UniProtKB/TrEMBL annotation:
Domain of life from the UniProt record: Eukaryota
Gene3D superfamilies: 3.40.50.12670, alpha/beta hydrolase
UniProt record similarity statement: Belongs to the peptidase S10 family.
SUPFAM superfamilies in the record: alpha/beta-Hydrolases
Key words, A-Z: Glycoprotein, Signal
Originating organism: Paspalum notatum var. saurae
Protein's UniProt name: Serine carboxypeptidase-like 19
Gene Ontology biological process terms from the UniProt entry: proteolysis; secondary metabolic process
Length: 506
């Protein structure tokens, strides 16, 4: 379908690398191994939701526990098998655009992690439902309609991916053995099968989107589609937020960001700059005591800063697996960007904990466990019996392999082939900083078409943007954190709508 011709050259792949970040404690990993074994050995029986309406064999949901009255939007759920040999099935939530579903863009949204549920993206980032956290006291959580969702202006498929995420599962344990590049192929399979069942959306402009770790997953998926022999999908472009891309830049941007944000003193910054040779984008020499000492001093003064939004408090039981802000390469060939919910900690669902101030986002995360593990909710969603045990908002995927060290070549191949790209950053995120993002974009060497300027929402500055050659747009979201739409929903909705419009400008 009228998609731009894509370069067939293969991006440079560094296979078998062991990129950075945090890993779960041994007892958490052991628990997940038990769950994985249970999933692999279980069988299922499909249960049809009593309050779901049948439409061409689709599970169309009109009412859902926790929401009063009929849903004011079209919601459909289901599974698509992406690995027939091992019975791997990806679960999805599909919400039609409330504006013009026949013409509005179709977005495949992949939440980060890897291993964070599509439900997290739907309830906490870009979907039309939220928990009433402020009004919660006890019992079953109440859902409310949210006006500033992306589904106001686009059709969105929220996908539980890779296999083992959310409600997605595999009949055989071998089906959980998937790599980053392999997951891109499975997402392509998912879209081909899904659109075959939903031909009314085949001509809509298709975008692949996601944030955090999906900075890897999104371009990998998009290029798999773009370089297919039979271009049967109407791919228009892709968008990534606070995107993991290449650890040299992702980690390298942290110290300059902290200095610019006033988290470290001029003296600490200068000590690190001088001791580490002035380039934070290169791995420091482990024998360089001056560099190591400066970095340790910086970590000591910033360890209590919330890395996903430096202005928000640490509270509740959402903990980051691992320790240092600068934790580097680890074993196992996996990269994790999870901020896991410490469900196993005593008191996680304690009423007193749920009485924390509303600004503690952890409260909403806790409510999602109560909601998603409810038998009536699962029946309504059409979850296969025995397919998974307890639901988790974010799961460490023990079988997943991170087989790339960079996706910068993917961005180059896609944009040079004519596909549009939006790379945006919440500007208060210490995890994936706008500093590091700008640095890897500059490394591509594209000429600037439209230089740095503010962009507006509600007649206020919502961020800043710059446009490069080959359809690449960079934007900051002022006041946004690691998942920018979670913190600045109205502004991010406006950003999406403008960028996907005919004009394509913020």
């Amino acid at each position: 379908m009228g998609s731009p011709s894509a370069s067939s050259s293969s991006p440079g792949q560094a296979m078998g690398g062991s990129p950075p970040l945090r890993f779960l404690q041994l007892q958490q990993a052991a628990l997940l191994v038990v769950v994985a074994v249970a999933v692999a050995s279980s069988s299922f029986v499909c249960r049809c939701a009593a309050v779901a309406a049948a439409k061409d064999g689709r599970n169309v949901i009109t009412h859902i526990k926790g929401f009063e009255g009929p849903l004011p939007f079209h919601l459909e759920t289901g599974y698509v098998e992406v690995d027939e040999e091992h019975g791997a099935r990806l679960f999805y939530y599909f919400i039609e655009s409330e504006r013009n579903p026949a013409e509005d863009p179709l977005i495949l949204w992949i939440t980060g992690g890897p291993g964070c549920s599509a439900l997290s993206g739907l309830l906490f980032e870009i979907g039309p439902l939220k928990f009433d956290v402020a009004g919660y006291t006890e019992g079953f959580p109440r859902l409310v309609y949210f006006e500033d969702s992306w589904t106001k202006v686009s059709n969105v498929i929220f996908l539980d991916a890779p296999v083992g995420t959310g409600f997605s599962y595999s009949r055989d344990e071998a089906g959980l053995n998937v790599s980053l590049t392999g997951s891109g192929r499975q997402h392509h399979v998912f879209l081909r099968k899904w659109l075959a069942e939903h031909p009314e959306f085949a001509s809509n402009p298709l975008y692949i989107g996601g944030d955090s770790y999906s900075g890897y997953t999104v371009p990998v998926t998009a290029l798999d589609i773009a370089t297919a022999t039979h271009k049967d999908l109407n791919l228009a472009g892709y968008l990534v937020g606070n995107a993991a891309t290449d650890d040299r830049y992702d980690t390298g941007g942290k110290v300059p960001f902290m200095h610019g944000m006033g988290l470290i003193s001029d003296e600490l910054y200068e000590a690190a700059r001088d001791g580490c040779g002035g380039d934070f984008y290169k791995a420091p020499d482990p024998t360089n005591a001056q560099c190591a000492g400066a970095m340790m001093a910086i970590n000591m003064v910033t360890f209590a800063v919330n890395p996903v939004h430096i202005l928000e408090p640490f509270c509740g039981a959402a903990v980051r697996a691992g320790g240092s802000t600068f934790q580097g390469y680890g074993g196992g060939g996996r990269r994790s960007m999870l901020v896991r919910d410490d469900v196993d900690r005593p008191g996680f669902f304690d009423k007193k904990r749920l009485g924390l101030p509303v600004e503690c986002r952890d409260n909403g995360y806790r409510l999602s466990y109560i909601w998603a593990d409810d038998p009536e909710v699962r029946e309504t969603l059409g979850i296969h019996d025995g397919s998974i045990g307890s639901w988790s908002r974010c799961t460490m995927l023990l079988h997943f392999r991170h087989d790339l060290t960079t996706v910068i070549p993917y961005h180059v191949n896609l944009t040079k082939a004519g596909y549009r790209a939006l790379v945006y950053n919440g500007d208060h995120d210490l995890d994936m900083t706008y500093v590091g993002t700008q640095e890897w974009i500059r490394s591509i060497g594209y000429p600037i078409v439209s230089d740095w300027r503010p962009w507006f929402a509600n007649r206020q500055v919502a961020g800043f943007t710059r446009t490069y050659a080959n359809n690449l747009t960079f934007a900051t979201v002022k006041g946004g954190g690691h998942t920018a739409p979670e913190y600045r929903p109205k502004e991010c909705q406006a950003m999406l709508d403008r960028w996907t419009s005919a004009a394509g400008q913020l």
